[in-house]
Amino acid sequence: MKRYMILLVILGSVLMPVYANTREDVSLARCTDGDTAHFYIQGEDVTVRFLAINAPEYTKEKEPYGKEASEYVCNALRSAESIELEYDEGSTKSDKYGRTLAWVFVDGVLLQEDLVEKGLAEVAYIYGDYAYTDRLKAAQERAKAQMLSMWSDASSKEELPYYMTIMGGVLCIGAGLLFYKGSKRRRLVRKGIRSIIKKKGA
Q1: So which residues are the catalytic ones?
Q2: What is the distance between the alpha carbons of residues 140 and 118, in angstroms, rounded to a whole number?
Q3: Domains of the chain, residue spans
Q4: I want to staple 29 with a disulfide (CB 3.0 to 4.6 A). Which of 21, 38, 164, 166 is the partner?
Q5: What is the pLDDT of residues 165-201, one digit of tens each?
Q6: pTM (two decimals)
Q7: How many other CB atoms are found less than 10 A from the CB of residue 105?
């Protein structure tokens, strides 16, 4: 009988999830922005930084989609029937500013994943083997593919250097034709053409 008990203990330890994270019920104290909020934890007002994401700023700075991220978080937390914080075994309990680091579950839904899925936050500050990192990265890829919110102008940003190079080449050619003569003109024209060809072939 004792042997069977030992086998059951060993089997249980093998089958136990890698992440034995702890959760606790909390209530909202006040909203802050898209990746931070204040919660009452055992009666104390605690600042909580949402683990593994970064949302655009909307406190001191006003970054694009910062307002949308902040409003989405605030609406979700205020209307929630239940809010749970999960502390990740792979992370420190707090950051260098003393803010508690946690996963935030709103009515059973992982808030970080929800924000990343909607393009209102990006995966960031991964300093350990966290429980839900893979889920967040997959959500981010979906948001990028659909060009949602903060990813909506990603393609235009990538194309900007190309158009700047084209304009530079055109200006070189124009300057050579208008203001210079002889060999200097030819050098400027050739330089402009080379820059355009080089970028096109890149």
Answers
A1: 49, 57, 99
A2: 8
A3: 17-151, 154-201
A4: 38
A5: 555 554 655 555 566 556 666 676 577 667 656 554 5
A6: 0.69
A7: 19
